[in-house]
Amino acid sequence: MLCWVVFALLIGVSAGAGEPKKKAKAPSLANGWGNNIKWVKSYEAGLEEMKKSQKPLMVVHHLDNCPYSKALKKAFVADKSIQKMAKEDFVMLNLMEETSDQNMAPDGYYVPRILFVDPSMTVRTDIVGKHSSRLFTYQPEDMEHLAENMKKAKVLMHDEL
C-alpha cells in the first residue's frame, strides 16, 4: 500500500514538473489611464523622450486610492479625443509619486493634477484647469476643457519653438 502511495506521489510530482511556469506580467505603465498610449517610466525618461520627439510632455499626478484620481482616470479613458491626442501628440507620464522638480508643483502638492512641459523644458504654468483653488486639477466634467488645454499645449509649443 505504501508503495502505491509513493508511486502516485512521484507520478504527480513528475507530471507537474513538465508544465511551463507562467511568467508574472509586468505592471503596465498605463496604470489604467489608457493601454493604447505609450507611457514613459519616469519624469527623467519623459524629459529625454520629449527632447528627442519635440512633443510636449503631459504629466498626470495621481494616487491609486484617491477617489478624485479614480474619477478623473475613468473620464480620461472614456474620452476618445483625449486618448487620441495623448497617443499621437504627447509624451505621456503618469506619476504616483512626486518628482524632485519643484516646478511640477507650482501651486502645491495635490492630486490629481495635470501639467504640461514643452521641449524647451518649460513647465506650462499658463495652461490651467477651471478651478482657482487648485489650478492644475481637472474633474470628470472638465474633459472638454482638458482637451482644449491639450490643443493649446500643442499649438503654443509649435508657435514658440
Automatic annotation (TrEMBL):
GO terms for biological process: fin regeneration. InterPro entries: AGR/TXD, Thioredoxin-like_sf. It comes from Kryptolebias marmoratus. PANTHER family: ANTERIOR GRADIENT PROTEIN 3, ANTERIOR GRADIENT PROTEIN-RELATED. Belongs to the AGR family. Residues 1-16 form the signal peptide. Gene3D superfamilies: Glutaredoxin. Keywords: Signal. This is Anterior gradient 1. GO terms for cellular component: endoplasmic reticulum. SUPFAM superfamilies: Thioredoxin-like. It comes from the Eukaryota.
